[in-house]
Design goal:
alpha/beta, Rossmann fold, five-stranded mixed beta sheet
Length: 534
């Protein structure tokens, strides 16, 4: 068994240890450079601005009233509040917290690979994590996802140590209890890091339950898992209450129901680190680069699939390895898909933790190649393709260039102009970008036009926006009256191309075209804005 033989490989320090340390250091440097590349270059997106303003509300609000409003648990916002007090709230400074969480995950990926397999597998898996485009993307986003991955890695380190203690010849439960410490700590943090952390926890418990039938010390294993779950349940009880009460939160209404096509697209993005759907939907990308991205993704996926088959042939009878690398992600994916048919939660961000076992699978497949030259060539090919795709995503246009929009509006606006922010069923333009980017004195007059049939839901963003810069509702008749008085009316909407919300906003634009004419109109990716006057 891989875990049993690890006892021999983790013997006295030898010259290879220095090489491993140097390799991890080089990977950390490379990962850091990728994640810092243009970190503050793009403006905050709407969700990132929510993170900034929500964390500004302070500990008392986040742990009190706020936890019943925001779906995501408080851990990230508490850390971000402390972080911005120290480093400021610029785009670079705020996103740097996610970068730090991502970099802290890399040594854990190596360590778990080493516990399950050997040093080579750990290095290969850490390299795959370092150059993964999807992890670079989330490391550059001011949202909880990098922290979520870090907490999952801590919990999985505990799982690996528990399995290792089960197959080692020592007797007694003490080694198992010590091995469970990172599992308990990581699991508690997982539940306070992301609202879908409970899916990971259920998947891990089911994995342990199935594993008990194949492990030599099944009674001790079950005893430690039960004790761990009791401690986790006690510590996570406050968040469990919030999770139950927020099971029908309007914050989640925008998530689409999973289709076969959507699920396949998510899995492809997780596997290769570069969702092809991003390249296809980016109409500004030349056809040549779309074809190039498709070719690179196809080649990378083919290499990874071949390496995964090599892994299965070698480790199919090694239960601890199969449990963590195959059974756990399969259970996790099934749970995410099953829950999503009741309440959609399946997205790249909620399934991102499934990539960690995948990297150990590919790393073990590479390490199992006997010929060193061939192994290194395949490793170089995989990393080169992955890194190339990661770099390619830096050429994508901003989805929400709020910094440019607000700057243009501030330059063009006149005293008395009214800014109407549209709110649809699944999207909407909030006041937070103006509250953050408007630098020319007091904010302009902000109003809100709601297109939702039956009224728009009171999401956490709406509640926060009303507390920071209220934007009273406005009707089409009131817009007509403003135009009749000679005032300029700005319309700002945040609707991705092809969104079903386009139909909801059409009455507004038809009314504007009838009552006035657009003197200036702009379109930047998901953002549309301009002003109308008679």
């Amino acid at each position: 068994m891989a875990l049993a033989s690890q006892t021999r490989r983790d013997g006295p320090v030898h010259p290879g240890t220095l090489a491993v340390g140097s390799g991890i250091a080089l990977l950390l440097i490379a990962a850091c450079l990728l994640r810092l590349w243009d970190l503050g270059g793009q403006s905050f997106e709407n969700d990132e601005l929510f993170s900034v303003f929500y964390s500004r509300r302070g500990f008392a609000y986040i742990l009190g009233e706020g936890r019943w409003i925001e779906t995501n648990p408080p851990l990230y916002y508490l850390l971000l509040s402390l972080w911005t007090d120290l480093f400021g709230d610029s785009e670079f400074a705020v996103r740097l917290l996610s970068v730090a969480c991502s970099l802290a995950t890399l040594p854990l990926v190596y360590r778990i690979g080493r516990i399950l397999f050997d040093r080579d597998t750990g290095i290969f898996a850490a390299a795959l994590f370092a150059f993964s485009g999807i992890h670079v993307f989330y490391a550059q986003e001011a949202r909880p996802y990098s922290l979520f991955i870090l907490t999952v890695a801590v919990a999985l380190l505990g799982c690996a140590r528990i399995f290792r203690a089960c197959v080692e010849p020592e007797h007694g439960i003490r080694p198992l209890i010590l091995a469970a410490i990172p599992f308990v700590l990581g699991s508690i943090l997982v539940l306070y890091a992301h609202s879908t952390g409970f899916v990971f926890m259920v998947a891990v418990d089911l994995m342990f339950l199935v594993s008990a039938a194949f492990m030599p010390r099944r009674k001790e294993l079950l005893a430690v898992v039960i004790l761990s779950n009791v401690l986790i349940a006690i510590a996570a009880a406050p968040q469990a209450e919030v999770l139950i009460r927020q099971s029908h939160s309007p914050n989640l209404l925008w998530i689409p129901h999973p289709t076969l096509r959507l699920t396949a697209s998510i899995l492809q993005g997780l596997m290769t680190g570069y969702p092809l759907a991003h390249a296809v939907k980016d109409r500004a990308m030349p056809l040549f680069f779309v074809v190039l991205a498709f070719t690179a993704v196809t080649a990378l996926a083919a290499l990874m699939i071949l390496l995964s088959f090599r892994f299965l042939m070698r480790y199919r009878r090694d239960w601890p390895v199969m449990a963590l690398c195959v059974v756990l992600p399969m259970i996790g994916l099934i749970l995410l898909m099953a829950i999503s048919h009741i309440r959609p939660i399946l997205m790249e961000s909620t399934a991102i933790w499934l990539t960690l076992p995948w990297y150990w699978v590919i790393g073990a497949g590479l390490a199992g190649i006997g010929a060193e030259r061939r192994r290194l060539l395949l490793f170089a090919a995989v990393v080169a393709l992955e890194a190339g795709l990661a770099v390619a995503q830096f050429g994508d246009e901003e989805n929400e260039p709020w910094r440019n929009l607000v700057a243009e509006a501030a330059k063009t606006a006149r005293p008395g102009d009214v800014f109407v922010l549209t709110k649809e069923s699944h999207t909407g333009a909030g006041v937070l970008p103006f509250a953050y980017y408007w630098k020319d004195g007091a904010l302009p007059e902000l109003r809100r036009w709601e297109a939702c049939p039956g009224g728009c839901p009171m999401t956490a963003e709406v509640v926060l926006s009303q507390a920071i810069a209220p934007a009273p509702a406005i009707t089409l008749d009131e817009i007509d009256a403003l135009l009749a008085q000679g005032q300029r009316v700005w319309i700002i909407s945040r609707i991705p191309p092809g969104s079903e919300d386009m139909a909801e906003i059409e009455p507004l634009y038809r009314n504007l075209d009838r009552a006035a004419h657009a003197t200036a109109a702009y379109h930047w990716q998901n953002l549309n804005f301009g002003y109308w006057q008679r």
